[in-house]
Design a protein that fits this description.
Blueprint lengths: L9 H10 L14 H14 L4 H4 L16 H11 L2 H14 L4 H4 L1 H6 L4 H10 L5 H31 L2 E5 L10 H7 L4 E2 L4 E2 L7 E3 L7 E8 L5 H14 L5 E8 L3 E3 L7 H7 L8 H10 L7 E6 L8 H13 L3 E8 L9 H9 L3 E5 L1 H12 L2
Parallel strand pairs: 5-6, 5-8, 8-9, 9-10
Antiparallel strand pairs: 1-4, 2-3, 6-7
Helix pairs in contact: 1-2, 2-4, 8-9, 9-11, 9-12, 9-16, 13-14
Protein name: VWA domain-containing protein
Pfam families: VWA_CoxE (PF05762)
InterPro entries: LolB, Uncharacterised_CoxE, VWF_A, vWFA_dom_sf
Length: 380
Amino acid sequence: MTTPPEPLDPNLERWRLILGEAGDACRNGHALRQDAAGRDSALDWLYGRDEDLARRDVRTRTGGDGPSQLTTVDWLNQITKLFPKETIERLERDAVERYNIPDVLTDPDVLGRIEPNPTLLGAVLRTKHLMNPEVLALARRIVAAVVRELMDRLEVTVRQSFTGTRSRRPSRFRQARNFDVRRTIRANLGHYQPEQRRLLIEEAYFFGRTRRQLQPWQFILLVDQSGSMVSSVIHSAVTAACLWGLPGIRTHLVAFDTDVVDLTSDVDDPVELLLKVQLGGGTDIARAVTYGASLIDNPRRTIVAVVTDFYEGASPSALVHAVRRLVEQGSHVLGLAALDEEANPSYDRQTAQLLADVGAHVGAMTPAHLAEFIAETVSR
């Protein structure tokens, strides 16, 4: 009777999973445990297709118990059981972004199982024009789930930015959220009952709340919908939706490439808005800025934010002229090279500098920072 090989040491097993077949030397005849063999098979299914392995003369990975015959659905089910959530998200992101596995976005069974995330949302927006109605209906679920999560996070910041901060002045308005604990305790220490270890409150104190007095402002968000700006497009839609309906602010959202599309009527439904965006194509930033200028009622109470990589496909001089006119008439002009949670821009620095030279504020922001900027500007 043949004795089964002993399990591999966990530390060596981890290195074997990292290195694939090239790490077999560390096994010394020991077997991978069942769950480790499953992880190896799942990693091989994805990373074994890397063309760079052949170029570096690295042997193709193979699963622990032989070649993998996994389908995409099988693979998704397998990684859900074998890996932690953070690893699953990374594997799904690599499947979409790095290896462009087609059925991740075209197979209804796959779309029905995959966990919604921003990377998958970006891929959906890039390929939605290729989807049949059944797949697009499932893709809408992904769009809605990711948008809802992003909005839930941003709405807290927006509310804090626009409702005002607590002041140290007392208030006669008694609301639990404004309860001044320290002052109340100090004022009632004389009523402490040591036997019962209780403090009797004879009089409670509350903070006042400084409320920003808002006069009507316009916020015009011009968003470059070229393919490289997909993350900023997503966060622009969510930001506009969170700002929509705030007292004293009228929000506009305009998408552009070589054409300009006013999406303001859909701002309150960011899911529908994103599904209308057409990513790709050229860029005419000057045309978008000129259109934004036509929407302005009171220049000195207007913020124009242009979200773009500044690679102007039309006339840079026309763009500079359009931005200079906005600044000279008193509008606040933001040139945002990125509007997303990472705020890591990739942009044409020469064109961005030209706009900064005529008075635009150029940089990159997270949506939360943009909301804070708008709140500070309109409350001055």
